[in-house]
Design a protein that fits this description.
The protein is mainly α. It contains 4 helices and no strands. The longest helix is centred in the N-terminal third of the chain and has 23 residues.
Length: 89
């Protein structure tokens, strides 16, 4: 719930800044009307950056990989026992 309140507060603050820029005419109107679009594009770029950084820092788990391979072998043996063709490997 606290996260939603933070997001809503940020949106209200950004909306207030945007409306004040529209009212004061500090920036040309053609730029001011595009600010929400720039914000959405910037948010998308930030999201892609965070996903990319997370993928670059993703740790490998050799022990878990061995356990997964054992599970695959066990599942293949189980399915072969039931008469299911599971391929060459």
């Amino acid at each position: 719930m606290k996260h939603i309140v933070k997001i809503m507060a940020l949106l209200v603050a950004l909306s207030a800044v945007w409306i004040s820029l529209l009212q004061m005419s500090v920036l040309p109107k053609s730029y001011t009307w595009l600010l929400p679009l720039y914000f959405i594009v910037s948010l998308g770029c930030y999201g892609l950056l965070m996903v990319g950084a997370g993928l670059m820092q993703f740790r490998t788990c050799p022990h878990e990989a061995i356990l997964l391979q054992q599970d695959v072998v066990e599942a293949k043996e189980f399915l072969k026992g039931k008469g299911v063709d599971v391929g060459v490997n």
